[in-house]
């Protein structure tokens, strides 16, 4: 009846990809079901959160980190990769250069985060392609279709297979495939993570006022103890 | 041939079959594994900041959010500059660079790394060593800014409740909370009254000038003994462990401020005054503010050094040959100056001695329950009467994530004048090592027997003595010592004056070939164990550039996540500020 | 030149926030209307209405009409229905209020609904859990007056349900006040609670010496308290009650050849004099509470116990005059006492 009684598992997910491949649009679409044409590069959103409820009612809360441009000159800080359980590497299927970069990011991710991180390779801007059946005859090939796709689906799939990634083709503009990316990642989160996270405040037996300290000792800086009202009744 | 833009075409693209083909391209298997092709640096910015240390990172973020376009560079391949968090390998390289003279204002760097442990049992990258270790007071401008700027969301914080003082050859844990004073049966009643009276006074000390003004020229120790009748031990604990002052010369108002900082920090997040961040202290916060700056629009370039700056053309040149035009100012960390011999760099007159040691031991008995760090203070005179300045130490356990399971990182700092600093730090280290070994002796059946007739315990003196003699000190995995110079006097904040001298004259003098005329040099880190002073220093720099600090971080981040609202379910909360905990933006996935 | 980029962005944010707020308010009003129609007009007690109350209470738990409606639905729909599909889960209902309380710990209506649930089920385990809950809330805010009142209520319900445990409950409640006072001496509610429990604790003890020992321990505890913090009124108020409470006085008077009570008073008088003199030495001023309590003690000496004036000095006049000066709000009272 009340979904909030379920406990959510928090997952840090990092985004990688060249600027202008549309990674921010993908997130925007996922988080608010919105899409803004020719949106200015992300300013302001340090990370966004969005919950996903799986068919079996478990809730995954994604904490999505955007690179904030620090990837442009290979200047991502260790803080960015730290404890990331999932990554979405995006390229623009009309830009081969962005695919090359995507390969590079995958390599970097494996270096920084090892093999435990779930990586989804995403080819974006599917809407720009007029998806037809594969050209069978030479005749069809010589007729220009205005097909702007420059990276074959097989290419992406191959990289995914070689590196153990999930692979998707999406359009942030139409929304096609976006939710599927995150749902698939959510489904892969190992079961052992579920149930570890507690949404409720925990209290320590020795009487400490600990509404701001969780059971593993971490402190939520936002949860300052209110000053007690001296009641002289 | 293929169209060449700014970059070299990749192998695949140079293949003739690529031209004019409209079907999807097949990309060679290994292409893209090389480093990505370089991006272009912006040509026009407002401010260039050189060095990604703590103060510069705060400044970068403040400027970015104010709307200035910032280009933030660092000649190293890591963030942090003078306040980085380094792996053992990086630290080793850093020591080499210091000794080659490549890093100004650092001297006498030495490092020992246990070759049969590091790289075998423990990996270099499992250690995160801060060149400037710090603790965060719950009531402080840094914490407030971390919350306001949302940078805290990038980090994890843990409590630190235990402070130890070394006196009379032993380490005493501080018991200075009101509760401890009240319940302690051994403290005489009048003493309780005196202590409590002082604690109450100090929380509000500015409002009682009649009590302390008479002592503004006398030492704090005199003030405490004459006015509040506190004894030497209590006084020493208050000044050096609670106030974290370095010596007795601290002025009374300053010391009161520092003591108050500790007490006022209690009970904000729990029964502890101080927090620390996991994965590193100042290094983490530097990264956090850099990220904030990036989100606000700043451009980041590591591995880039400042070549020169011409204040007449306002052109900045970088080591990779690129240049940029600056509309406002250039801020430079003294360690990344293009000319170490330049007279424009402010004098760095104070020396800080730092020692960091990784030991193969878990010092759990020193930490509070469920905690992983502690502060240890050696007041002046406590090290065989030889130290005039206090030695401050911070000990971290592996739950801080800066060292692996089964190890600890110990940081020791001294501001001793003259040449004794290193020796005193070694002495302090030895004292702590002895103590930690002693405390972990297993008192087993050989040491304590029970008398057959009376049943009372009998200690086998001889056996105990043998055990003590065989004390094995914990193994040292890594030990690093260095000296850092700073212009900030111990427990004072960076003075605005040092920036003012750089503002005018040098701008006009272009004939003498200086590479750094017209730049503003930022301060070197201070010896302060807390983050106090860092934001003040950033504000002074900010004001120098912008004209005033009125709009320093004057941004409302509350509704930053404007994209998280979902039209289906909204949350009406009293504060009208939605945070994701209250949001019910579930996406119910259907199969 | 500076800040153009950011300011535009900020303006945009403000605009968006305004739009968001307007949308929120409109949405809430719609829900409210829906609720009133379902409740007052249609008396629609069913699952759909129940969910509606959940949604609107999540937004605004102070909407009492929604709580009323919710209770009516529970009584008329869930509990009337023998169909197992609509069985009512009280624990889940308590969880619902718990979530609200975490966000709004002081909203009366939530507590009200919670106690309604507890009373309806009246299960002792639930009341014990409730005591744990109050523990936690008082851990967060030890001076929350509502917390203490609620605590007393919960304890009384527990006693009602299990009268044999009454004594044990008194013990633990008394010890609880000790814990709270140790943490923070100036916890008025804790001292107040202590005073209400002390007589009970005393009467539970058998025999004179046991009772005397309890009283002596309390005297130590109190003395410790006035030395540690002589500024806090809660301690002095408790002290005043303690030295004038008939039962306590009675027990003291039967000891030490009839002088037990007198000796205790003298002890306190000495301590308080030391404290007051110390205060004068430090700040030049008296501690008003010291003066007030000394007056109380001396009144007992001279007026009630008829102690010979030769042995002890009667400073009441001087002290009252001092008080008139430094505590003008109560001037009339002191002047009255001077007569």
Structure commentary:
Chain A has 233 residues and is α/β, with parallel strands linked by helices. Chain A has six helices and six strands. Chain B has 591 residues and is α/β, with parallel strands linked by helices. In chain B, a hairpin with a 6-residue loop joins β21 (448-450) and β22 (457-459). Chain B is globular. Chain B has an eight-stranded mixed sheet, sandwiched between helices. Chain C has 16 helices and no strands. Chain C has a domain at 215-339: Protein prenylyltransferase (Serine Threonine Protein Phosphatase 5, Tetratricopeptide repeat), CATH 1.25.40.120. Chain C has helices at residues 4-41, 47-59, 64-78, 90-103, 108-121, 124-140, 145-161, 166-183, 188-204, 208-228, 233-244, 246-253, 260-283, 288-304, 316-326, 331-338. β2 of chain A pairs parallel with β25 of chain B, so a sheet runs across the interface.
Question: Characteristics of this structure?
Answer:
heterotrimer, B: FAD/NAD(P)-binding domain, Guanine Nucleotide Dissociation Inhibitor, domain 1, 5-stranded parallel β-sheet, 15 helices, disordered N terminus, disordered C terminus, C: 339 residues, mainly alpha, Serine Threonine Protein Phosphatase 5, Tetratricopeptide repeat, 0% strand
| CATH C-level of the domain at 11-111 and 278-348 and 488-546 in chain B | Alpha Beta
Residue-averaged pLDDT of chain A: 74
CA-CA gap between termini of chain A? 41 Å
Q: Describe the strand arrangement of the main beta sheet of chain A, using strand numbers.
A: 2-3-1-4-5-6
Question: Mind telling me the CATH superfamily name of the largest domain in chain A?
Answer: P-loop containing nucleotide triphosphate hydrolases
Helix-strand makeup class of chain B = alpha/beta
Protein chain pair with the most extensive contact, residues per chain: A-B, 76 and 79 residues
Using DSSP, what is the number of strands of chain B?
25
Q: How many structural domains in the coordinates of chain A?
A: 2
Low-confidence stretches of chain B: 1-37, 501-511, 559-591
Alpha-carbon distance between the termini of chain B?
A: 50 Å
Radius of gyration of CA atoms of chain A, rounded to a whole number: 22 Å
Oligomer: heterotrimer
Q: What's the tally of helices of chain A?
A: 6
The tally of helices of chain B reads 15
What is the CATH architecture annotation of the domain at 11-111 and 278-348 and 488-546 in chain B?
3-Layer(bba) Sandwich
CATH topology of the domain at 11-111 and 278-348 and 488-546 in chain B: FAD/NAD(P)-binding domain
Encode the helix/strand succession of chain A as letters.
EHEEHEHEHHEH
Largest sheet of chain A, described in full? 6 strands, mixed
Name the CATH homologous superfamily of the domain at 11-111 and 278-348 and 488-546 in chain B.
Answer: FAD/NAD(P)-binding domain
User: Which structural class fits the helix and strand makeup of chain A?
Assistant: alpha/beta
